[in-house]
């Protein structure tokens, strides 16, 4: 279970894991020293292929989508559009992130957003027993199995990395 038990310090993502009784680990790092995803992976001594960043997009239809790709990878917008069955996909503007999701840039978790959006993770996630992703604020990562993440939010695997 989580090593972090102060209720007032918990994020929505941590609360979702705790409420479901699912195994996970919450890891902390210096958010000032580790800014890029690769730096976060290095700070935590993790394989960057196993650490995923959460990206929020908008489709031509106006629907929003969440994509999770390895921190050293880039989202392929054509592949993302195909996975979401959209004509095209674009990244949302940074200023739209907080009002849309409740999260800030660098601390956006696929869990606990203000609204549930269709969510996709790069298919490479299935190669690992555990994956890491934002715990809902800068300086915090959650480590869990993909299967346990999928018990909390409908995450589909797809080939979405450039």
TrEMBL record:
Pfam families: tRNA_edit
GO molecular function (one): lyase activity
Residue ranges constituting the YbaK/aminoacyl-tRNA synthetase-associated domain according to the UniProt record: 35-152
Presence of the UniProt keyword Amino-acid biosynthesis in the record: no
Coiled-coil regions listed in the entry: none
Documented EC number(s): 4.2.-.-
CDD domains assigned: YbaK_deacylase
Keywords in alphabetical order: Lyase, Protein biosynthesis
GO aspect biological process, one term: translation
Protein name (Swiss-Prot/TrEMBL): Cys-tRNA(Pro)/Cys-tRNA(Cys) deacylase
UniProt organism field: Slackia isoflavoniconvertens
């Amino acid at each position: 279970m989580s090593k972090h038990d102060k209720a007032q310090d918990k994020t929505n993502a941590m609360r979702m894991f705790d409420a479901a009784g699912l195994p996970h680990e919450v890891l902390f790092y210096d958010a000032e020293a580790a800014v890029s995803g690769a730096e976060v992976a290095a700070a935590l001594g993790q394989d960057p292929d196993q650490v995923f960043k959460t990206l929020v997009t908008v489709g031509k239809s106006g629907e929003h989508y969440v994509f999770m790709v390895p921190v050293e990878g880039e989202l392929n917008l054509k592949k993302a559009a195909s996975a979401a069955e959209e004509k095209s996909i674009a990244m949302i503007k940074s200023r739209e992130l907080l009002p849309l999701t409740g999260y800030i840039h660098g601390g956006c978790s696929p869990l606990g957003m203000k609204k549930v959006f269709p969510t996709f993770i790069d298919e490479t996630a299935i190669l690992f027993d555990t994956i890491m992703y934002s715990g809902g604020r800068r300086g915090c990562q959650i480590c869990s199995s993909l299967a346990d993440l999928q018990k909390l939010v409908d995450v589909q695997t797809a080939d979405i990395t450039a």
